Protein backbone atom coordinates (compact mmCIF):
# COMPACT_ATOMS: atom_id res chain seq x y z
CA UNK A 1 0.00 0.00 0.00
CA UNK A 2 0.99 3.59 -0.53
CA UNK A 3 0.60 4.59 3.10
CA UNK A 4 1.61 2.89 6.31
CA UNK A 5 -1.38 1.98 8.44
CA UNK A 6 -0.16 3.95 11.44
CA UNK A 7 0.35 7.59 10.57
CA UNK A 8 1.35 9.98 13.28
CA UNK A 9 2.14 13.06 11.23
CA UNK A 10 0.43 14.45 8.19
CA UNK A 11 1.40 17.37 5.95
CA UNK A 12 -1.42 19.20 4.19
CA UNK A 13 -1.42 22.07 1.72
CA UNK A 14 -5.05 23.05 1.35
CA UNK A 15 -4.57 25.44 -1.55
CA UNK A 16 -7.21 27.06 -3.75
CA UNK A 17 -7.24 24.38 -6.46
CA UNK A 18 -6.15 21.02 -5.11
CA UNK A 19 -5.81 19.74 -1.59
CA UNK A 20 -2.36 18.16 -1.42
CA UNK A 21 -1.27 15.84 1.39
CA UNK A 22 1.87 13.93 2.33
CA UNK A 23 2.78 11.22 4.82
CA UNK A 24 6.42 10.94 3.76
CA UNK A 25 9.01 12.23 1.29
CA UNK A 26 7.69 9.93 -1.42
CA UNK A 27 4.11 9.34 -0.29
CA UNK A 28 1.70 12.06 -1.29
CA UNK A 29 -1.60 12.58 -3.07
CA UNK A 30 -4.22 15.17 -3.93
CA UNK A 31 -7.90 15.71 -4.63
CA UNK A 32 -9.65 18.68 -6.25
CA UNK A 33 -10.36 21.36 -3.71
CA UNK A 34 -13.99 21.55 -4.76
CA UNK A 35 -16.91 21.65 -2.41
CA UNK A 36 -20.65 21.59 -3.16
CA UNK A 37 -23.47 22.01 -0.72
CA UNK A 38 -26.17 19.34 -0.94
CA UNK A 39 -29.55 20.92 -0.49
CA UNK A 40 -32.69 19.06 0.50
CA UNK A 41 -34.13 17.07 3.39
CA UNK A 42 -33.27 13.67 4.88
CA UNK A 43 -29.61 13.77 3.87
CA UNK A 44 -27.38 11.28 5.66
CA UNK A 45 -23.70 11.88 6.30
CA UNK A 46 -21.20 9.16 5.40
CA UNK A 47 -19.99 7.73 2.04
CA UNK A 48 -18.51 10.93 0.60
CA UNK A 49 -21.10 13.18 2.22
CA UNK A 50 -19.72 15.44 4.93
CA UNK A 51 -21.77 17.17 7.59
CA UNK A 52 -20.36 20.21 9.33
CA UNK A 53 -22.26 22.69 11.49
CA UNK A 54 -25.61 21.34 10.29
CA UNK A 55 -24.92 21.53 6.54
CA UNK A 56 -24.05 18.76 4.09
CA UNK A 57 -21.38 18.76 1.39
CA UNK A 58 -19.76 16.75 -1.38
CA UNK A 59 -16.02 17.16 -1.74
CA UNK A 60 -13.51 16.59 -4.55
CA UNK A 61 -14.51 14.89 -7.80
CA UNK A 62 -18.15 14.42 -6.78
CA UNK A 63 -18.46 18.12 -5.97
CA UNK A 64 -17.36 19.04 -9.50
CA UNK A 65 -20.26 16.99 -10.89
CA UNK A 66 -22.86 19.11 -9.02
CA UNK A 67 -24.92 21.92 -10.57
CA UNK A 68 -22.79 25.04 -10.85
CA UNK A 69 -24.94 27.02 -8.42
CA UNK A 70 -24.25 24.50 -5.61
CA UNK A 71 -20.48 24.60 -6.01
CA UNK A 72 -18.68 26.75 -3.44
CA UNK A 73 -15.66 28.48 -5.00
CA UNK A 74 -12.87 28.31 -2.42
CA UNK A 75 -11.19 31.50 -3.57
CA UNK A 76 -10.43 33.40 -0.36
CA UNK A 77 -8.44 32.56 2.74
CA UNK A 78 -11.61 33.02 4.85
CA UNK A 79 -13.43 30.27 2.92
CA UNK A 80 -10.40 28.02 3.02
CA UNK A 81 -10.24 28.45 6.79
CA UNK A 82 -13.97 27.89 7.20
CA UNK A 83 -13.93 24.59 5.30
CA UNK A 84 -10.47 23.38 6.41
CA UNK A 85 -12.04 20.82 8.82
CA UNK A 86 -13.81 19.07 5.92
CA UNK A 87 -10.63 18.99 3.83
CA UNK A 88 -8.66 17.55 6.74
CA UNK A 89 -11.35 14.94 7.54
CA UNK A 90 -11.54 13.93 3.86
CA UNK A 91 -7.73 13.63 3.66
CA UNK A 92 -7.72 11.27 6.66
CA UNK A 93 -10.55 9.23 5.06
CA UNK A 94 -8.65 9.05 1.76
CA UNK A 95 -5.66 7.66 3.69
CA UNK A 96 -7.90 5.15 5.43
CA UNK A 97 -6.45 5.83 8.88
CA UNK A 98 -8.04 6.28 12.27
CA UNK A 99 -8.11 10.01 13.10
CA UNK A 100 -7.05 9.22 16.68
CA UNK A 101 -3.72 7.95 15.39
CA UNK A 102 -2.86 11.23 13.70
CA UNK A 103 -1.25 13.38 16.37
CA UNK A 104 0.41 16.15 14.37
CA UNK A 105 -0.71 18.02 11.28
CA UNK A 106 1.45 20.50 9.40
CA UNK A 107 -0.47 23.05 7.31
CA UNK A 108 0.68 26.00 5.24
CA UNK A 109 -0.50 29.55 4.84
CA UNK A 110 0.48 32.20 2.32
CA UNK A 111 2.49 35.07 3.85
CA UNK A 112 -0.30 37.27 2.45
CA UNK A 113 -2.42 35.94 5.34
CA UNK A 114 0.18 35.84 8.13
CA UNK A 115 -2.25 37.73 10.40
CA UNK A 116 -4.58 34.70 10.21
CA UNK A 117 -2.11 32.12 11.51
CA UNK A 118 -3.57 31.89 15.02
CA UNK A 119 -7.19 31.53 13.90
CA UNK A 120 -6.20 29.10 11.13
CA UNK A 121 -4.26 26.93 13.61
CA UNK A 122 -7.23 26.94 15.99
CA UNK A 123 -9.69 26.02 13.23
CA UNK A 124 -7.55 23.05 12.15
CA UNK A 125 -6.72 21.70 15.60
CA UNK A 126 -10.18 21.05 17.05
CA UNK A 127 -13.44 20.44 15.16
CA UNK A 128 -16.41 18.11 14.60
CA UNK A 129 -17.25 16.64 11.17
CA UNK A 130 -19.85 13.87 10.67
CA UNK A 131 -20.26 13.79 14.43
CA UNK A 132 -16.63 12.78 14.94
CA UNK A 133 -14.48 14.97 17.17
CA UNK A 134 -11.04 15.62 15.67
CA UNK A 135 -8.15 16.97 17.73
CA UNK A 136 -4.52 17.51 16.65
CA UNK A 137 -1.38 19.46 17.35
CA UNK A 138 -1.06 21.81 14.39
CA UNK A 139 1.98 23.63 13.05
CA UNK A 140 1.46 26.41 10.50
CA UNK A 141 4.29 27.15 8.05
CA UNK A 142 4.48 29.99 5.55
CA UNK A 143 4.14 28.72 1.99
CA UNK A 144 7.45 28.58 0.18
CA UNK A 145 9.31 27.64 3.35
CA UNK A 146 7.66 24.20 3.35
CA UNK A 147 8.74 23.71 -0.27
CA UNK A 148 12.29 24.83 0.54
CA UNK A 149 12.50 22.31 3.43
CA UNK A 150 11.57 19.55 0.96
CA UNK A 151 14.22 20.64 -1.55
CA UNK A 152 16.79 20.68 1.30
CA UNK A 153 15.81 17.17 2.36
CA UNK A 154 15.99 15.96 -1.26
CA UNK A 155 19.42 17.63 -1.67
CA UNK A 156 18.13 19.70 -4.58
CA UNK A 157 19.34 23.06 -3.29
CA UNK A 158 22.37 23.31 -5.59
CA UNK A 159 22.83 27.10 -5.59
CA UNK A 160 23.89 29.36 -2.71
CA UNK A 161 21.82 32.49 -3.24
CA UNK A 162 18.30 31.93 -4.52
CA UNK A 163 15.01 33.67 -4.98
CA UNK A 164 12.41 30.95 -4.39
CA UNK A 165 9.10 31.78 -6.08
CA UNK A 166 6.19 29.68 -4.89
CA UNK A 167 3.07 30.10 -6.97
CA UNK A 168 -0.25 28.45 -6.31
CA UNK A 169 -3.68 29.10 -7.74
CA UNK A 170 -3.99 32.60 -6.30
CA UNK A 171 -0.88 33.86 -4.51
CA UNK A 172 2.77 33.95 -5.50
CA UNK A 173 5.05 34.01 -2.46
CA UNK A 174 8.73 34.91 -2.54
CA UNK A 175 11.42 33.56 -0.21
CA UNK A 176 15.05 34.75 -0.11
CA UNK A 177 17.79 32.17 0.37
CA UNK A 178 21.38 33.25 1.14
CA UNK A 179 24.22 30.71 1.46
CA UNK A 180 21.58 27.97 1.20
CA UNK A 181 19.77 29.32 4.30
CA UNK A 182 16.14 30.47 4.09
CA UNK A 183 15.81 34.07 5.31
CA UNK A 184 12.77 33.42 7.48
CA UNK A 185 12.88 36.91 8.97
CA UNK A 186 11.93 38.38 5.60
CA UNK A 187 8.78 36.32 5.12
CA UNK A 188 5.93 38.82 5.06
CA UNK A 189 2.90 39.95 3.09
CA UNK A 190 5.24 42.42 1.34
CA UNK A 191 6.74 39.44 -0.46
CA UNK A 192 3.42 37.89 -1.39
CA UNK A 193 1.34 38.74 -4.45
CA UNK A 194 -2.32 37.92 -4.89
CA UNK A 195 -3.96 37.04 -8.23
CA UNK A 196 -0.57 36.39 -9.87
CA UNK A 197 -0.73 32.59 -9.74
CA UNK A 198 -2.44 30.04 -11.99
CA UNK A 199 -5.58 32.21 -11.82
CA UNK A 200 -3.87 34.71 -14.17
CA UNK A 201 -3.35 32.16 -16.97
CA UNK A 202 -6.74 30.46 -16.33
CA UNK A 203 -8.45 33.83 -16.76
CA UNK A 204 -6.81 34.28 -20.18
CA UNK A 205 -7.79 30.77 -21.27
CA UNK A 206 -11.38 31.41 -20.18
CA UNK A 207 -11.44 34.55 -22.38
CA UNK A 208 -10.02 32.63 -25.37
CA UNK A 209 -12.68 29.88 -25.04
CA UNK A 210 -15.43 32.50 -24.86
CA UNK A 211 -14.04 34.45 -27.82
CA UNK A 212 -13.23 31.52 -30.12
CA UNK A 213 -16.01 29.06 -29.26
CA UNK A 214 -18.69 31.20 -27.62
CA UNK A 215 -18.63 28.87 -24.61
CA UNK A 216 -18.68 30.13 -21.01
CA UNK A 217 -16.37 28.45 -18.51
CA UNK A 218 -15.68 29.48 -14.93
CA UNK A 219 -12.13 29.89 -13.61
CA UNK A 220 -12.13 26.46 -11.94
CA UNK A 221 -13.19 24.76 -15.20
CA UNK A 222 -10.57 26.74 -17.14
CA UNK A 223 -7.97 25.51 -14.71
CA UNK A 224 -8.84 21.85 -15.33
CA UNK A 225 -8.71 22.55 -19.09
CA UNK A 226 -5.18 23.95 -18.61
CA UNK A 227 -4.19 20.57 -17.16
CA UNK A 228 -5.97 18.45 -19.78
CA UNK A 229 -5.14 20.78 -22.72
CA UNK A 230 -8.53 19.95 -24.22
CA UNK A 231 -12.18 20.12 -23.33
CA UNK A 232 -15.40 18.47 -24.35
CA UNK A 233 -18.57 20.39 -25.07
CA UNK A 234 -21.77 18.52 -25.89
CA UNK A 235 -19.81 15.50 -27.02
CA UNK A 236 -17.33 17.39 -29.17
CA UNK A 237 -13.62 17.54 -28.22
CA UNK A 238 -11.65 20.77 -28.62
CA UNK A 239 -7.83 20.63 -28.51
CA UNK A 240 -6.14 23.72 -27.07
CA UNK A 241 -2.51 22.51 -26.83
CA UNK A 242 -1.03 25.15 -29.13
CA UNK A 243 -2.96 27.96 -27.52
CA UNK A 244 -1.83 26.81 -24.08
CA UNK A 245 1.86 26.64 -25.15
CA UNK A 246 1.55 30.26 -26.25
CA UNK A 247 -0.07 31.20 -22.94
CA UNK A 248 2.73 29.47 -21.00
CA UNK A 249 5.43 31.54 -22.72
CA UNK A 250 3.39 34.70 -22.17
CA UNK A 251 2.76 33.90 -18.52
CA UNK A 252 6.44 33.04 -17.84
CA UNK A 253 7.48 36.40 -19.32
CA UNK A 254 4.80 38.17 -17.28
CA UNK A 255 5.71 36.46 -14.00
CA UNK A 256 9.44 37.09 -14.47
CA UNK A 257 8.67 40.67 -15.43
CA UNK A 258 6.67 41.23 -12.21
CA UNK A 259 9.51 39.67 -10.21
CA UNK A 260 12.06 41.87 -11.99
CA UNK A 261 10.06 44.99 -11.21
CA UNK A 262 10.11 44.11 -7.50
CA UNK A 263 13.42 42.32 -7.14
CA UNK A 264 15.51 43.21 -10.20
CA UNK A 265 18.53 44.50 -8.30
CA UNK A 266 18.31 41.52 -5.91
CA UNK A 267 18.20 39.07 -8.83
CA UNK A 268 21.35 40.62 -10.34
CA UNK A 269 23.27 39.23 -7.37
CA UNK A 270 21.56 35.84 -7.08
CA UNK A 271 22.58 32.53 -8.60
CA UNK A 272 19.15 31.26 -9.54
CA UNK A 273 15.37 31.64 -9.40
CA UNK A 274 13.63 28.45 -8.18
CA UNK A 275 10.00 28.23 -9.21
CA UNK A 276 7.84 25.83 -7.21
CA UNK A 277 4.15 25.12 -6.63
CA UNK A 278 1.37 24.63 -9.16
CA UNK A 279 2.61 27.47 -11.38
CA UNK A 280 5.83 25.59 -12.08
CA UNK A 281 3.94 23.39 -14.59
CA UNK A 282 2.95 26.56 -16.47
CA UNK A 283 6.48 27.92 -16.76
CA UNK A 284 8.95 27.66 -19.60
CA UNK A 285 12.33 27.73 -17.78
CA UNK A 286 14.16 28.21 -21.09
CA UNK A 287 12.44 31.47 -21.94
CA UNK A 288 14.65 33.98 -23.77
CA UNK A 289 16.44 36.68 -21.82
CA UNK A 290 17.82 34.50 -19.02
CA UNK A 291 20.99 32.38 -18.89
CA UNK A 292 20.45 28.64 -19.26
CA UNK A 293 19.62 27.04 -15.92
CA UNK A 294 18.96 30.38 -14.20
CA UNK A 295 15.26 29.54 -13.85
CA UNK A 296 14.82 26.10 -12.27
CA UNK A 297 11.69 23.97 -11.79
CA UNK A 298 11.39 20.68 -9.87
CA UNK A 299 9.60 17.37 -10.00
CA UNK A 300 6.42 16.91 -7.90
CA UNK A 301 6.44 20.69 -7.76
CA UNK A 302 2.89 21.15 -6.47
CA UNK A 303 3.47 18.68 -3.60
CA UNK A 304 6.60 20.33 -2.22
CA UNK A 305 4.78 22.40 0.42
CA UNK A 306 2.68 19.46 1.61
CA UNK A 307 5.81 17.31 1.93
CA UNK A 308 7.62 20.15 3.75
CA UNK A 309 4.68 20.57 6.12
CA UNK A 310 4.98 16.83 6.86
CA UNK A 311 8.74 17.16 7.51
CA UNK A 312 8.10 20.04 9.93
CA UNK A 313 5.26 18.19 11.74
CA UNK A 314 7.52 15.15 12.10
CA UNK A 315 10.38 17.22 13.56
CA UNK A 316 8.08 18.84 16.12
CA UNK A 317 6.57 15.47 17.03
CA UNK A 318 10.02 13.93 17.60
CA UNK A 319 11.11 16.91 19.67
CA UNK A 320 7.94 16.75 21.81
CA UNK A 321 8.23 13.01 22.45
CA UNK A 322 11.88 13.47 23.49
CA UNK A 323 10.88 16.20 25.93
CA UNK A 324 8.18 13.97 27.44
CA UNK A 325 10.66 11.17 28.17
Average pLDDT confidence is: 91
Structural class: alpha+beta
Number of strands: 19
Task: Tell me the helix content.
Answer: 25-40%
Q: Tell me the radius of gyration.
A: 20 Å
Number of alpha- plus pi-helical segments:
8
Straight-line N-to-C gap: 32 Å
Detail the poorly predicted runs.
Answer: none
The main pleated sheet reads as:
6 strands, mixed
Shape: globular
Strand content: 25-35%
Would you kindly provide a written description of the structure presented here, covering whatever features stand out?
It is globular and about 60 Å long. The strands form five sheets. Strands 12, 13, 14, 15, 18 and 19 form a six-stranded mixed beta sheet that branches. The mean pLDDT is 91. With 325 residues, the chain is an alpha+beta fold. Helix 5 packs antiparallel against helix 7. Helix content is 35%, strand content 25%. The chain starts with 8 loop residues before the first strand and ends with a helix. A hairpin with a 4-residue loop joins strand 12 and strand 13.
Amino acid sequence: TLFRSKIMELGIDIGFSYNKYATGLETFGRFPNALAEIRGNQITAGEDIYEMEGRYYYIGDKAIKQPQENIIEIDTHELMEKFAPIFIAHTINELGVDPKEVTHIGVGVSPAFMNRIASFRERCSNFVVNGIHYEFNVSVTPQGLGAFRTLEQRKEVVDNDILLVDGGFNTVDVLFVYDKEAQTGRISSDNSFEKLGVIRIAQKLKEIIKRDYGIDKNIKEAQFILNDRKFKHRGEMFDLSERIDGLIDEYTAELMNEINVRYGSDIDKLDSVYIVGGVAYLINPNIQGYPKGFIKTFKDSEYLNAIGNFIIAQKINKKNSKEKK
